[in-house]
Structure formats: C-alpha cells, structure tokens
Amino acid sequence: MFPVALTGGIGSGKTTVAHLFHELHNIDIICADQVAREVILSPKVIEAIVDEFGDTVMTNGMIDRKVLRSIISQDTSARTWLNNLMHPIIRQQIELKLSKSQSIYTIIDIPLLTTATLTNYPYIKKIISICASMETKLDRITARDNQTTSQALLMIQSQISDDERRTFSDFIIKNDGDISELTPQINAIHHSILSFLNGTS
C-alpha cells in the first residue's frame, strides 16, 4: 500500500488526470469527492446540514450540493462548520477503501489538500498537484457547472493558490492543454514513483 495524493483547485482537471492514471497504468483511484457524495446521503449528515443551513439546501429530499457549495464559497465560517462535520467521516471511508486497494500504488484524489489538512493524512507518501492558469480554470468551471465568471472566481478564491500547492508537492502537472500534453507528464510521474518503490531513485 503506497498512497499518493492527487490535488488541485476547482477547474484544474483532477478527474481527467485521475482517469488517465487508471487508464494508462491501472492505478486504483479513491476520489474524496465521490466519498463525500456518499457521506452526504447519510440521514444523520443530512439532518445536521439542514439544522445548520435550513431547508433551502434541500431539493427532492436530498442535499443540493450546488446550493451548499455556493453558500460555503461565500462564507468562511459555514465552510469551516461543514468541513468539521464531513471530513472526519470522509477520512474514515477513504482509509477503508485504501485498505482494499490492489494496485502498486493508490491515488487519493483530495481537492482540498492544504499544508494544514496534510496532518489528517499521515500515511500519504507522495503528493501530485495539478496547476492551471486562472483563465483555464474559469473556462472549465463556467462551461461545466453553468456558473457565471464571478461565481467561478469566488470558488477559485475560496481555495488555496497553485503557488501554495507547489510548496508541499513532490510532482507538478501543468494542465492548460489537452490529453496529449497530460500523458507524458503522467507517464514520467508514474515511472518516478515506480523507481522510488524499487529503490532506484
């Protein structure tokens, strides 16, 4: 078991990069966002969120993640409260999935990884950060999530910067282009990790 964190801000292209690691090298991927989507279905979690934010976060009996995301992108205290509720449960589920992984190393896609939250993942061996220009991120968010540019900018600014991510990362992937530009970067990182595992780096 060799856990490798994959991180990057909203609009950086984490899903594409994670998919390529699996497709090119058969690496198991654990997605923290997917775990969060599973956790937020828990009746106890739903009840706590509604108690805190009211019925406006509900749609058809479920938490409306888009509404919730909008709230926490504009309110630091709301984001802190939600993180304190969700993250311990999410981390527990990630560790369970990690224990079942069978690939030579396992990538854990953790969007909100920061210097502070790194302490919650003491088992992480290497960190890969995906960086992209502000223009690229804005284009991706507005196209994918049907957000205005100002809404997308708020989401980006609510997270740490790429410069900060670089300070705690072992590898950087630049993702302003297409898959043809991603593949060689991913291959190089894969072989570097294998060399480390084999004691040749």
TrEMBL record:
Pathway: Cofactor biosynthesis; coenzyme A biosynthesis; CoA from (R)-pantothenate: step 5/5. It comes from the Bacteria. Keywords: ATP-binding, Coenzyme A biosynthesis, Cytoplasm, Kinase, Nucleotide-binding, Transferase. InterPro entries: Depp_CoAkinase, P-loop_NTPase. The keyword Kinase applies. ATP binds at residues 11-16. One of its GO terms (cellular component) is cytoplasm. GO terms for biological process: coenzyme A biosynthetic process. GO terms for molecular function: ATP binding; dephospho-CoA kinase activity. It is an enzyme of class 2 (transferase). Gene3D superfamilies: P-loop containing nucleotide triphosphate hydrolases. It catalyses: 3'-dephospho-CoA + ATP = ADP + CoA + H(+). It is found in: Cytoplasm. Belongs to the CoaE family. This is Dephospho-CoA kinase. It comes from Cysteiniphilum litorale. The lineage of its organism: Bacteria, Pseudomonadati, Pseudomonadota, Gammaproteobacteria, Thiotrichales.
